[in-house]
Amino acid sequence: MKILERNWVKQLLLIIFTFTIVQILIGLNIINDYLQVTLATICINIILAVSLNLITGFTGQFSLGHAGFMSIGAYMCAIITLRMPTLTGFLLGVFSGAALAALVGFVVGLPTLRLRGDYLAIATLGMSEIIRIIFLNLKITNGAAGLSGIPQFVNWFWLYLFTTGTVLIIVHFLNSSHGRACISIREDEIAAEAMGINTTKYKVMAFTIGAFCAGIAGALYSSYFYFIKPDLFGFLKSIDVLVIVVLGGMGSISGSILAAVLLALISTFLQSFPEIRMILYSLALVAIMIFRPQGLMGSREISLAIFNKWSSLFASRKGRV
Amino acid sequence: MPILKVSKLTKSFGGLTAVSNLNMTLEQGELVGLIGPNGAGKTTVFNLLTGVYKPTSGTITFYKDGMEKELQGLKPYAICKAGVARTFQNIRLFKDLTVLDNVRIAMHKNVKYGLFPSFLHTPSYQREEKKLLDQSIELLKIMKLENKKDELAKNLPYGEQRHLEIARALATNPSLLLLDEPAAGMNPAETAQLTELIEWIRERFHLTILLIEHDMSLVMKICERIYVLDYGTLIASGTPDEIKSNERVIKAYLGEDVSNA
Predict the structure, then answer these.
(1) Does some domain include residue A321?
(2) Which domain holds residue A195?
(3) Contact predicate B31/B202, CB 8 Å
(4) For the whole model, what pTM was predicted?
(5) How far does the CA of residue B248 sit from the closest CA of chain A (Å)?
(6) Which has fewest Cβ within 10 Å: A24, A120, A256, B228?
(7) What pairs with residue B214 in β-bridges?
(8) Is residue A319 part of a domain?
(9) For chain A, what is the domain count?
(10) Under CATH, domain B2-83+174-260 is a member of which superfamily?
(11) From residue B238, how far is each of A19, B35, B249 by CA, in Å?
């Protein structure tokens, strides 16, 4: 138990440490307004990629509908904060957006998760298009023009809080018996079912949790960029997230985080070459896939063990995970 | 006292009747063999018993703790929860997971904590996970796989993969165990070892075992009773000696030279 407590403390210290460093850098304007946009993109992409990894990389259900869930969170948060421009309104918007996305995920997941592989991908793609078309035609969402002037509540604190929160919850989930049940579905669905795992239940569970987190990411997006329109959440957005997941490694949380950071940095760096930006970006993707076809991390994880190794250089007592 | 009663079980795939009108009864604690030539429908029977296929007609009744339960039409996981576990003819381990995780996943149905404890790793999560780990290690010790607990299942040698399949089935805490060709691909020495293991786990876990096997040395040695299938129909049942001398079985399956069997 003592070891566990120590790891818990270490984790928390690391989280606070990272937060403070970035906060100081923002204060000193080393991370300027321009880089702060990159930072927000990174955080939102981490939430999206980690939650999609739960569905696709760990549970093995190929989903192309993540942008749909994201848009639900985004619109819900926007609509609520436009009418209730307070911090309470923002938090209400985030959680009701996430809850609605989870509900849609649950309702859509029940019938579609019977499908496998490509069929599921097409079904989830269709679902996210339906959501987009609905937002395009509703009055409350202001159709194709979208919603603008959404009160901006999201700053580094909220971004960081929600990102670490969702990542930790998903990591914890995967390290539980329920999470292992999800992973067993990816490994061998028939064997999992024969070992007493209600595979439908766990597929829907992973899908719902993933949708919930995508809803949070959407809400953060709308509140940070204060403008949303249905086109932002099209098919390409789902592909963007999928690219991060595949690039980081299917079944690796740290891989998803690494890839989200790396891609955002590459993208930001390439802003200086606007004409050939997308070509270079695509070339970088191709190069990574050629040299690391299993993704940057494969299915491995960076764990606290590494930090323990570092800390053992300073302290005489050696820690273990 | 019976543990499983199969009556008039039939399964057809389109025009092909894979199993027709099968009647079978397993008594508590028995070790029963199910044999037949290739394509006789043995694995189909297993798939019917474990819910992978839905029977076209017929009933499967499972008796446990004085309760009766109809298994036909239930999902595989529900049948597993009722107390029927199986292994697979073509090994179906969770290949990219560790030996320990393979066993732990099979114990999932006993886990008592809900979703929120798993998000937050609350004390109830810690307690239950500890219990789960202890039980898994204990089972792996019994199956002599404890020192391999952190290896990936796919990296185990073939024989140990078969053992792990049995360990994983035992982890679901079954009262009826279905073994689908456990000795397939094993050499005579390994088969002999497996024979001992099967008899031993039957005693240790108070199991009833139904076994599909092509290796006649194993079947004739350990099975108390044998059912013989041919083209989906039951052609004989009885003790190994009765089966050895049964005309229809010899004709359908064992060939003319029965003395070597």
Answers:
(1) no
(2) 2-314
(3) yes
(4) 0.90
(5) 34
(6) A24
(7) none
(8) no
(9) 1
(10) P-loop containing nucleotide triphosphate hydrolases (3.40.50.300)
(11) 73, 12, 11
